[in-house]
Amino acid sequence: MEFKFGEFFLNNLEAAGAIGGYVSISIIGFAIFSYIAKKKFNKPTSKFGPRRFHPIVGSLLGSIPGCGATIVASSLYKNGKISFGGLFATFISTLGEGSFVLLGASDEAKVEANLEAYLIITVFGFITGIVFGYLVDYANFRHDYTHEQRELIVEQSSTKGQYYFIEKFIDELGFYLIMTISIFLAPSSLMALWGGEIEYISDIIYFIYVSLSIICIIYYLYKLFYKQLNISCDDSIKSTTYQAVKDVAMVVTFVFLGLFIANYIIDELVGEDKFKSWMNSSTYVVVLISALIGLMPGCGGMIVVAVTYMSIPDFPIAALIAAAIATSGDGIFPLLAENKKDGLIITGLGLVVAIFVGYLSLFLGFN
């Protein structure tokens, strides 16, 4: 059958927008939750209890969907309120924004299967975070903390004068477009989560899904290449919501890329039957590759693996577990900015643990 690129392209935009509709609700909601948690636990008088409980607390934080918990944990660690083992547990147990992809709706997988996968990798991550968090603290790891963020602040402030009216207009336009579409899609997105739809506006919803994907991709690329230094740093609900919208754009962009690449490889280059046979015969390689993809800074790698899991029949859940443990979420960025040594240690140890637990889960039958 002849390959119709235009139809294929639009179908993947629509699928990414459908996931993005629910993702936007979740990310913004959890961003506000993280803002409240940060306010509560970032006070000078705030305590996080005895050190011996920090790996458990950190793993619980990481189990919260989204990247907010890793950002909060990085802030706590910076202020000496959580141990390195607690911090490591948070990064091990987090799924980042990939959690919203699994919790969202998709044409490629049933809601029940996505929810089951989410629960399995959350449990694996939670237990792994506690175990290795205690091992790290038991080894009495100590860090030579250095305040490198001053140079970053100076570099950002020096670019303030470059923030022209047209650039601010694009920022505001992208923000309000994504917010407006997300609010409009909220009812249909919640229905889609459980397999339902509003039939009499299905054509309109299709157009809006495609529009959401296009706007998010353009906005994300704009922020990535042109405005990455001009980050709003004021500690307010508005700033938190603004950051959440940027995360929505990032997630939708990576979801689209993951769907596009995975579906093209399966449908056009290899063929579903041949690809399924390859997956079954090369599971150990898939687990390793997934862990390496999950290692990508931020949530992009985990999103790609999560979308691949939803798109490819019989994709091993052990590979999803490995990617989830390897992923560090957006919290790795402030950690690297504050203390590169600890950030690199977190990343390296996380990869080793991810590969070990991925193969262990495969041995236990999660394939």
Explain this structure to me?
The protein is 74% helix and 0% strand. The two termini are 32 Å apart. The chain is mostly helical. It contains 16 helices and no strands. The protein has one domain. Helix 4 (84-93) runs antiparallel to helix 6 (111-138). The chain has helices at 5-41, 54-62, 68-78, 84-93, 98-103, 111-138, 149-157, 165-193, 202-225, 237-270, 272-281, 283-294, 300-311, 317-326, 332-338, 340-363.
Strand content: under 5%
- Element string (H = helix, E = strand): HHHHHHHHHHHHHHHH
Cα(first) to Cα(last) distance is: 32 Å
Our Rg estimate from Cα atoms comes to 20 Å
Helix content: over 70%
Name the features.
16 helices, 367 residues, mainly alpha
Outline:
The chain is mainly alpha-helical.
Q: What topology emerges from the helices and strands here?
A:
Layout: H1 5-41, H2 54-62, H3 68-78, H4 84-93, H5 98-103, H6 111-138, H7 149-157, H8 165-193, H9 202-225, H10 237-270, H11 272-281, H12 283-294, H13 300-311, H14 317-326, H15 332-338, H16 340-363
Helix pairs in contact: 1-3, 1-8, 1-9, 1-10, 2-4, 2-6, 3-4, 3-15, 4-6, 6-14, 8-9, 9-10, 10-13, 12-13, 12-14, 12-16, 13-14, 14-16, 15-16
